[in-house]
Write a structure and sequence with these properties.
By secondary structure, the chain is mainly beta. It has one helix and 30 strands.
Length: 360
Amino acid sequence: MKTPILFALFSAATLGAVCSASAQSDASTSPYRVVRSAKVGGPGGWDYVLADPDNGRLYVPRGDHISVFDIDSLALAATIPGTSSVHGVAVDPASHHAFSSSQPLVMWDSQTLAVVKTIAVQGRPDGILFEPATERVYVLSHRAPNVTVVDAKSGDLVGTIDLGGSPEQAASDGAGRVYIDIEDKDTVAVVDAKTLQVTAHYDLAGKGGGPGALALDIKNHVLFSYCHDPAVAVILDANDGRILSTLPIGKGVDAAEFNPATGEAFSSQGDGTLTVIKETGPSQFAVEQTVATKSGARTSTLDAKTGHIFLITADRVPAPPAPSPTPVAAPAAGGEAAPAPRRERMQMVPDSFTILEVGS
């Protein structure tokens, strides 16, 4: 994902006020809330998080390694080392193989956590998806090749896909179609999982820009494409790309999930919110709740067994001032060049890494 791992969206005072007001509203009128917060610490930044309820684990990439937590106790169970810039994890429940989105990919046994092998790939691995119809893993990259496809049983490379843009998150319908949001083109690409060919591009038609997360209701064929600018969910018919609705979400979205048991779509945002969209009827949708989480908790995962959402974040403070930038503006007569505008840099507070669990 393009969004830096550590970033600031609100001042602490503003965020505190927003979270306080939202928490009071949630507690009195809405079912979801943060039911557990575990400060687990440890070095490294973070990106995507993945729940593996079949094996009772929570995978959290931490830069050059993957921390594996017990999903019930949130105690650190194991560490998978030896990866570089790992961003995400995908698990095949049939072959019991798991993969990291990293350079190279790491393949391990999801039951024993023993590393099977590493797999050299091109591009810059970022998002990752397991596709069950063909039992393959899709590794997304902002650089070509946009998608590298790996056989989940053998770990062999199957092929690559040119999406014509930068992919963010993907979703599979389990029946041979893969949907991938293209951040820099404001589209959702549709891929035939058997042929690895792009069969369509669904245009968001100016309703939302910079899609950074994607969720799919398989049963009702509904796509939820979550955008940065403006901060909205563009909801589409997965069959033909027809736009059904748009709804507001928080700022800084980076992950989304759909829970078929409740008919709810969830999106996590870096501004410390989790947006819950409810399907209220055929082609009818509403923002059911905005849950106050924590600043920076922009990625999330659904535990399909409990219906709970896990998010990850850490405390951040302003980084030490960087050297003054090189002047870029032409100087006025007799004056000095104006400095380039500077964005506040943030850094993670050591050992403040935290796992949040949202439930009802």
